[in-house]
Design brief:
Length: 230
């Protein structure tokens, strides 16, 4: 998290968030801070609680993983606040999204254009996800995959692989990072053809390089086009 986000949590009267994220910050919340913890799938409910608490003159922090504006809670909080005709000030504090965190761990695979695509089909139809994978694969961009696989959801990653392998060379470098920036962080560099052989879950971020991505000192590096001979 950014220092500004940490300060906001430390100063909050109320902290609202998904239970897993609440556990990650419990050591920096004040003892007298009210904690509202919820489960996956209750995002709208939590946003409504946060707005209600803020309307009661509390300083409220809605905790979101990574950056709140990238697959996070910023959008739904703004929507709920508008629906409730609330005029309280809302500040979006940027964080470090998994794409940039994983990229730093792996080296510099995202130094040029890249696409970020979530494989979660809870809110986005699988057909639309497949189309995005298809177009990004044809464009020779590095691709970052969020929410790639869970115990009950393995089809999207298999579909994504089948699409990518048609357009991207099988030996293209792929970085796999688990728990980026958290306790238990793991990272591995492999190739696209071996992607489905890896252990992948919901806390895994997958980075597929482009045709200019190479291995330098065990790091993924995507060439941007600089002339190194001058």
């Amino acid at each position: 998290m950014t220092p500004k986000a940490r300060i906001a949590i430390e100063e909050a009267d109320v902290v609202v968030g998904y239970g897993t994220y609440i556990k990650l910050i419990q050591d920096i919340t004040r003892r007298d801070t009210e904690i509202v913890s919820g489960t996956m799938g209750k995002e709208v409910e939590r946003a409504k609680i946060a707005v209600k608490k803020a309307n009661e003159n509390n300083k409220v922090v809605m905790v979101s993983s990574g950056d709140p504006g990238i697959y996070g809670m910023a959008g739904i909080v703004l929507e709920v606040a508008e629906q409730e005709k609330t005029r309280i000030p809302i500040e979006i504090i940027p964080g470090i999204t998994a794409a940039s965190a994983a990229s730093a761990i792996l080296g510099a695979p995202l130094i040029s254009d890249f696409a970020v695509i979530s494989l979660s089909d809870l809110l986005t139809p699988l057909e639309k996800i497949e189309k995005r994978i298809e177009l990004a694969s044809q464009a020779d961009m590095s691709i970052v995959l969020y929410n790639p696989q869970s115990q009950g959801r393995i089809e999207p990653l298999i579909k994504a692989y089948e699409i990518m392998i048609k357009h991207i060379h099988p030996d293209t470098l792929v970085g796999i990072v688990k728990q980026a920036g958290r306790k238990g962080q793991q990272a591995k560099i492999t190739t696209l053809k071996n992607l489905l052989d890896e252990e992948i879950d919901m806390v895994t971020t997958i980075v597929i390089g482009n045709s200019e991505t190479k291995l330098i000192n065990n790091k993924m590096v995507t060439a941007r086009g600089y002339n190194l001979t001058n």
